[in-house]
Amino acid sequence: MNRIPMKKLLIFGLILTLSSVLAVAQEKAADGPVITFEESSKDFGDITQGDKVENVFKFENTGNAPLIISNVAATCGCTVPSWPREPIAPGKKGEIKVSFNSAGKMGKQNSVVRIYSNASEPIEKVSMISNVLPKGGR
């Protein structure tokens, strides 16, 4: 009768157990809300100093639990975000509206907005890019 050595059997059992643990860990990592943006940046190109531009960043909760956005913060007072205060159900869409006021700004601008939520990635970023030219400089 051909016997499998105990050492090989033990190693096989250990590998099988580890595979099961890893599969469960990956499944758990996918649990919860996931924020998925259609686009994460908008480039306005050249704008004139004093111009106000805005963009709507559309997203979807591609996870399996309600998405709650707790805060949205801009890098400077020249950039103002607005966002949904109610939970976004799985499969539903939402929008974050961002306005940028170029008054007092010159040259290349990259306004970064951070989105804080209960998503699997708790801090996401979107940005608005522009090149501010002096008035009459176009």
What do these coordinates show?
- With 138 residues, the protein is of the alpha+beta class.
- The protein has one domain (35-133): Immunoglobulins (Immunoglobulin-like, Sandwich).
- Helix content is 17%, strand content 45%.
- The protein has one helix and eight strands.
- It has one helix at 6-29, and strands at 35-37, 41-48, 52-61, 69-74, 79-82, 93-101, 107-117, 123-133.
- It has a four-stranded antiparallel β-sheet, with no helix packed on it. Strands 2-8-7-4 form a four-stranded mixed β-sheet, with no helix packed on it.
- Strand 7 (107-117) and strand 8 (123-133) form a beta hairpin.
- It is elongated.
- It starts with 5 loop residues before the first helix and ends in a 5-residue tail after the last strand.
- The mean pLDDT is 89.
- Residues 1-25 form the signal peptide.
- Keywords: Signal.
Task: Explain the layout of strands and helices.
Blueprint: H1 6-29, E1 35-37, E2 41-48, E3 52-61, E4 69-74, E5 79-82, E6 93-101, E7 107-117, E8 123-133
Q: Structural class from helices and strands?
A: alpha+beta
Strand content: 35-45%
Please state the average pLDDT score: 89
Described by the principal axes of the CA atoms, the overall outline is elongated
Radius of gyration from the alpha-carbon trace, in angstroms: 24 Å
Q: Percentage of helical residues?
A: 10-25%
**CATH level-1 class:** Mainly Beta
Largest sheet strand order: 1-3-6-5
What CATH calls the topology is: Immunoglobulin-like
Major sheet, described briefly?
4 strands, antiparallel
When the domains are counted, the total is 1
CATH superfamily: Immunoglobulins
Annotation, overall tally of beta strands: 8
Q: Termini separation (Å)?
A: 90 Å
**SSE string, helices as H and strands as E:** HEEEEEEEE
Number of helices: 1
